[in-house]
Design goal:
- It contains three helices and four strands; from the N terminus they run E-H-E-E-H-E-H.
- By secondary structure, the chain is an alpha+beta fold.
- The chain has a single domain, classed as 2-Layer Sandwich (Histidine-containing Protein, Chain: A), CATH 3.30.1340.
- Helix 1 runs antiparallel to helix 3.
- The longest helix is centred in the first third of the chain and has 12 residues.
Length: 80
């Protein structure tokens, strides 16, 4: 399992959320994103939007699977 905590620089609008989900969906790993105590599936647009990611949000990205390190690295780059 690979985890990384980041602080977002921008809010995640619908277009950026779709890009985030498309990026996460490229990977075979099980990928989760959490804010505070709410954890959601990174491959679900509705789940990502429900997090309400804003400027300065602290997110934890967790991936578990064959390509977990690449997944966390690429997903992190989408958010920063």
């Amino acid at each position: 399992m690979t985890e990384k905590t980041i602080v977002t620089k921008d809010s995640l609008d619908t277009r950026h959320a779709a890009l985030f989900v498309q990026t996460a969906s490229k990977f075979k790993s099980n990928i989760k994103v959490s804010i505070n105590d709410k954890m959601v599936n990174a491959k679900s647009l509705m789940c990502i939007i429900s997090l309400g990611i804003t400027n300065g949000s602290q997110l934890k990205i967790t991936a578990d699977g064959a390509d977990e390190e690449d997944a966390v690295k690429e997903i992190t780059s989408v958010l920063q």
